[in-house]
């Protein structure tokens, strides 16, 4: 049994059919109704399986190593599907679905085509596009047949998508609210306005840590301690009840202590390998992995952001040690981050290194992967995959270099600034010494620039063309 717990997507849709002469309120049945899930190819990469299509975040994704696949959702009762939505993944636009069919069935055997789309594209990453089902039908079983465009620039034909929604009509008092501000100072008042659908006759606000005054169905609140605060709204009407919780939606800052409200995520350590020489060595050198992660996090986020209100908030960071070919990777979404280390790499590549050097290398990798967790990612579709890769890996190595954990490597002359990792990272580090708050501002371009490219981001921060700066940097390397 599967049930999504993310925020309800509210849509009010007007339909011209006689049976639906008035506006109706739609809700995402994958949020609130129980269902089972099937897929032609359910899991290619751990933590990027088909279940991620229906989790609590549009920033996770389902990745298939096939160019086309189907995903089936089986409900316990029939619903009339009026709309559906697809959300693009946070990277690799070439892997987006390009063509698809939405099919429905009552018995799971006889299928009707509810909608068909060809040559679709997404304008940005994590973009949700909604489609109307012209010939809406009562169905218990829904199947998406998805296909991407073909071989990508990486030589694969992978398909990926972040989220799927299915919308049916309801009379329930779907809970929703607006805030006039999301970031406030200590004791500053913020107003929460009830915007719930289907006319709830009773509402209840639950805001732990708040001083609250009610104003009809609305609320005015303030806080005397810095931090992140969650809001829950419960609603009732004759059709039933609903509840909506937005976690950490209000940020309260002490302007004299901009990092006082920082809340570190829970750290979970999973040692899948404890027997190899590399695993035993990591456990010996980093006996308290949770403490190491927390210490790096506290030092890292001020290098990317100005205060705690800007930092992505994770509920959990999972550290996983496993025997694998890849040195390390970061996975998960904006709620739950996973970092995996390779015990094989430690066993085979670091065997002859002294403990001090191995500890230094492991902490450097931790800095790099945690930066991936906290850095921003370009949202515009204008940047090429090469530029996006250079930004993501370059920023991770920029922070690692400036933190002092890349001293075993040196910058080398190159024809391009788009190599990623140390090639880009040392260039960005050189720029950070010339331009104040470069790390903050360059990271922010990922969301501030509507037509993001690597070159545009450099010029936005420095006022100079990247070609000119690269020539100056290369000239210094060859002195």
TrEMBL record:
Protein keywords: Signal
Domain of life: Bacteria
Classification via InterPro entries: FA58C, Galactose-bd-like_sf, Ig-like_fold, PKD_dom_sf, Uncharacterised_BSP
Record domain F5/8 type C: where: 13-166
UniProt cross-references to Pfam families, sorted A to Z: BSP, F5_F8_type_C
Signal peptide: 1-21
UniProt keyword Secreted present: no
Cross-referenced PANTHER family: PLANT BASIC SECRETORY PROTEIN (BSP) FAMILY PROTEIN (PTHR33321:SF12), PTHR33321
Entry protein name: PKD domain-containing protein
Native organism taxonomy: Bacteria, Pseudomonadati, Pseudomonadota, Gammaproteobacteria, Alteromonadales
């Amino acid at each position: 049994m599967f049930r999504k717990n993310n925020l309800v997507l509210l849509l009010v849709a007007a339909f011209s059919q006689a049976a639906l002469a008035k506006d109706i309120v739609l809700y995402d049945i994958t949020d609130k109704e129980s269902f089972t899930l099937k897929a032609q190819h359910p899991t290619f990469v751990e933590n990027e399986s088909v279940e991620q299509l229906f989790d609590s975040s549009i920033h996770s994704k389902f990745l298939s190593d096939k160019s086309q696949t189907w995903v089936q959702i089986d409900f316990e009762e029939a619903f009339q599907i009026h709309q559906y939505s697809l959300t693009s993944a946070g990277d690799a636009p070439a892997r987006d679905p390009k063509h698809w069919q939405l099919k429905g069935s009552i018995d799971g055997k006889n299928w009707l085509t509810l909608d068909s789309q060809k040559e679709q594209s997404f304008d940005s990453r994590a973009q949700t596009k909604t489609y109307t089902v012209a010939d809406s039908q009562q169905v218990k079983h829904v199947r998406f047949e998805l296909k991407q465009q073909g071989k990508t620039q990486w030589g694969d034909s992978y398909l990926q998508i972040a989220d799927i929604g299915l919308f049916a009509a309801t009379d329930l008092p779907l809970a929703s609210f607006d805030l006039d501000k999301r970031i406030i100072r200590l004791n500053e008042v913020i107003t929460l306005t009830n915007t719930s659908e289907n006319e709830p006759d009773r509402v209840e606000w639950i805001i732990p840590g708040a001083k609250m005054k009610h104003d009809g169905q609305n609320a005015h609140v303030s806080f005397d301690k810095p931090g992140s605060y969650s809001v829950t709204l419960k609603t009732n009407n004759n059709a039933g009840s609903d509840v909506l919780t937005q976690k950490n939606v209000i940020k309260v800052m002490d302007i004299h202590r901009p990092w006082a409200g920082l809340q570190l995520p829970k750290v979970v350590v999973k040692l899948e390998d404890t027997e190899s020489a590399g695993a035993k060595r990591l456990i010996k050198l980093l006996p308290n992995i949770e403490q190491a992660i927390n210490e790096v996090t506290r030092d890292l986020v001020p290098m990317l952001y100005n205060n705690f209100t800007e930092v992505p908030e994770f509920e959990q960071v999972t550290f996983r040690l496993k025997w694998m070919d890849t040195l390390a990777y970061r996975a998960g979404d904006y709620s739950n981050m996973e970092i995996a280390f390779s015990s094989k790499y430690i066993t085979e590549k670091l065997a002859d290194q002294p403990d001090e050097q191995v500890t230094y290398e492991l902490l450097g990798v931790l800095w790099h992967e945690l930066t991936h967790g906290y850095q921003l990612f370009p949202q515009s579709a204008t940047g090429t995959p090469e530029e996006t890769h250079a930004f993501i890996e370059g920023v991770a190595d920029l922070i690692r270099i400036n933190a002092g954990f890349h001293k075993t490597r040196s910058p080398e002359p190159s024809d391009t600034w788009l190599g990623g990792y140390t090639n880009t990272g040392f260039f960005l580090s050189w720029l950070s010494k010339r331009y104040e708050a470069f790390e903050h501002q360059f990271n922010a371009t990922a969301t501030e620039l509507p037509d993001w490219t690597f070159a545009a981001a450099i010029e936005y921060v420095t006022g100079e063309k990247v070609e000119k700066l690269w020539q100056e940097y290369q000239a210094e390397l060859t002195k």
